[in-house]
């Protein structure tokens, strides 16, 4: 006997019909639009399962609604600049509209690769390690106050080191009393310490 294949919301049969799988549940297109679809920030209508969606910083648009705030040119397949929650095309972006790089203080224009962290923007090549000055770009980093460190410099400068051999400890040590010598404590990074 075949298992029932119904919409999670309205319970209509889905055999032979278009449906969408969302969060592990199957739903008909009507229920997807009603309960699951993202809402376009421009027209405030649901972005249906058959529509093309543009996503930028947890905001969603129909591809036809993603337009320059000044000239209304479609930007679905174009580079753009975001300024004060407005999306602008290359032609409408002025130097004043462009966010400034914290590293070189020059404008970041549409098409520039950039890094953003906690509301501050850098050109990708200007986002560098505070210690070795190597470009971090979009790689892993560790923030410390106003400084940023690449993984290597962070481990060298801030990681805990063994007092005896001076090698970096992979993780904080786990301490436990030794069974053979009560009252003595030993450090280890072993996962299965006795």
TrEMBL record:
Protein's GO biological process: muscle organ development
Q: Which PROSITE patterns match?
A: LIM_DOMAIN_1, LIM_DOMAIN_2
Single GO MF annotation? transmembrane transporter binding
Q: Which residues form the LIM zinc-binding domain?
A: 38-98, 99-160
Q: Which residues form a coiled coil?
A: none
Q: Kindly list the places in or outside the cell where this protein is found, as annotated in its UniProt entry.
A: Cytoplasm
**Is Glycosyltransferase one of the keywords UniProt gives this record?**
no
Cite the SUPFAM superfamilies for this sequence.
Answer: Glucocorticoid receptor-like (DNA-binding domain) (SSF57716)
What keywords tag this UniProt record?
Acetylation, Cytoplasm, LIM domain, Metal-binding, Repeat, Zinc, Zinc-finger
User: SMART domains of this UniProt entry?
Assistant: LIM
An annotated GO cellular component: cytoplasm
TM regions (residue ranges): none
Instruction: Determine the domain of life of the protein's source.
Output: Eukaryota
Q: Which InterPro entries match?
A: Fhl1 (IPR042997), LIM_FHL1/2/3/5_N (IPR056807), Znf_LIM (IPR001781)
Q: What is its main location?
A: cytoplasm
Q: What is this protein called?
A: Four and a half LIM domains 1
Lineage, opening ranks: Eukaryota, Metazoa, Chordata, Craniata, Vertebrata
């Amino acid at each position: 006997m075949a298992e029932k294949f119904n919409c999670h919301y309205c319970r209509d049969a889905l055999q032979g019909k278009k449906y969408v799988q969302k969060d592990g549940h199957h739903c008909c297109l009507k229920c997807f639009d009603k309960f699951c679809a993202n809402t376009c920030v421009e027209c405030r209508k649901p972005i249906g399962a058959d529509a093309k969606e543009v996503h930028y910083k947890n905001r969603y648009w129909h591809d036809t609604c993603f337009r320059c705030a000044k000239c209304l040119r479609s930007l679905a397949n174009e580079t753009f600049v975001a300024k004060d929650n407005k999306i602008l095309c290359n032609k409408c972006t002025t130097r004043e509209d462009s966010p400034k790089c914290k590293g070189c203080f020059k404008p970041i224009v549409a098409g520039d690769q950039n890094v953003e962290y906690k509301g501050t923007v850098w050109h990708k090549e200007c986002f560098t390690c505070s210690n070795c000055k190597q470009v971090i770009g979009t790689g892993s980093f560790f923030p410390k106050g106003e400084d940023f460190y690449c993984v290597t410099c962070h481990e060298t400068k801030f990681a805990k080191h063994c007092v005896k051999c001076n090698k970096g400890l992979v993780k904080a040590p786990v301490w436990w009393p030794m069974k053979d010598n009560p009252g003595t404590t030993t450090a280890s990074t072993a996962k299965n310490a006795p």
